[in-house]
Amino acid sequence: MLYDDRPPPLARVGPPVHMPRCVEVNMRTIAVVSQKGGAGKTTLAVHLATEAARSHVALIVDTDPQATASRWGEWRRGAEPEVIDCGAPSLLAGKLAKAADLGAELAVIDTPPHADAMARQASRLADLILIPCRPRAFDLAAIEATAELVRSSGKPAFVVFNAGPPRAPLIYREATSLIGDAFRLPIAPVVLPERAAFHHSAAAGRTAPEHQVEGKAAGEIRALWAWTCAQLDVPPPRRTALVGAAA
Ligand SMILES: Nc1ncnc2c1ncn2[C@@H]1O[C@H](COP(=O)(O)OP(=O)(O)OP(=O)(O)O)[C@@H](O)[C@H]1O
Ligand SMILES: [Mg+2]
After folding, report:
1. Which residues place a Cβ less than 5 A from the ion ligand 2?
2. Does residue 91 lie within any of the structural domains?
3. Mean pLDDT calculated for residue range 86-102
């Protein structure tokens, strides 16, 4: 053949169409850690991932043998976000890399309590670490182990006050100064107070905003997600309601 008369291949002016936005943006990873049991890790992880899933490809990586997030994912019967599990710290980097390859834009890692190695690895691989903490004396004291663990990762880390009284500015002020002075950890400016919507929604495989779209918990979760977007340098959600800011 002297010449090739087939049409030239189409010029690629952008990413291939089957590749979602994350190829340009890179996947962001949040690790939710606390060595204290029942602090609100799974609650925080499923709520942030579900808010993210409204506008991004988001998933939860459940690294907890209790498999609470995975069970919640099953109760959702296929609704986003997807929940995948990871049974060993040595597998976590590979699972995250595969998720990014498949188009994930945000991964939220839910970690177990009392599991130093997994929490350390999640913190090491994260862009942002969130530490839910009830603003109560025993919970605050228990932050010490988690603070040491996240500090060694060198990643930005914030305490998120969770499940405290809705209106108790003094409690939050005291807790903030204790955590700042003793553990040198910054506090997220949005708190998630104790709300029944978290109980009711979890049992149905839903989130508080899905359960009651205009409820107080919904507004607080949206505010926390908007703040989280700013920390991760991702475009903020269009609708934000900055309520629930720490006093
Ligand atoms: N802000 C909140 N208001 C009301 N209930 C909450 C709140 N946050 C968490 N809870 C409830 O507290 C319990 C423990 O929360 P969660 O399972 O998220 O904690 P955890 O840190 O993941 O626990 P574990 O260490 O066992 O993994 C759950 O029943 C959850 O519904
Ligand atoms: Mg949990």
Report:
1. 41-42, 68
2. yes
3. 98
